[in-house]
Amino acid sequence: MADTSNPVTNSDLPRKKRNKAGSGRISRESSRARWRTETEQRIYSSNLIDALRSLRHPDSSSVRDAADKVLAVSAKGRTRWSRAILTGRLSFRLSQINRRHKKAAKPVVASKKPAARNNLPPLQRKVKALSRLVPGCRKLSLPNLLEETTDYIAALEMQVKAMALITGLLNATS
To answer: Can you give the pTM of this predicted structure?
Structure first.
């Protein structure tokens, strides 16, 4: 017979750690494979064409902004860089409005402190530079920064392929 005097409770079982809701960790292999699928590229290309058609005055900055926004929407907010691109558009617009309403610009005073980057070790300087290149990743730890960078590079590769395809089609028709 089984001993029922000491039943196992939930507190006795090993607990699994729950990921934070916003962490959305993606492995390198899945992020690269995700951005390289034919379906994902087709969806992105068709959304990019729609976004480019809706531009009123297409210039290089508006085309780049539209391409970045479509790329971030394609990522579905699973990554920090995509959320940063989507929210960055709003904060950029708000900063433009605030700039118009400011009175006079305050004079810039030269600081007497030596540049902090010169005191950092070479690896930390490079990590800091990399974190500035990937949107929304300025204050990430190195492993998380590398994951986000891997996904961002794979997404940018897909963006370049799609834009090269669109450029080829436009050149063939003209």
So the answer is: 0.66
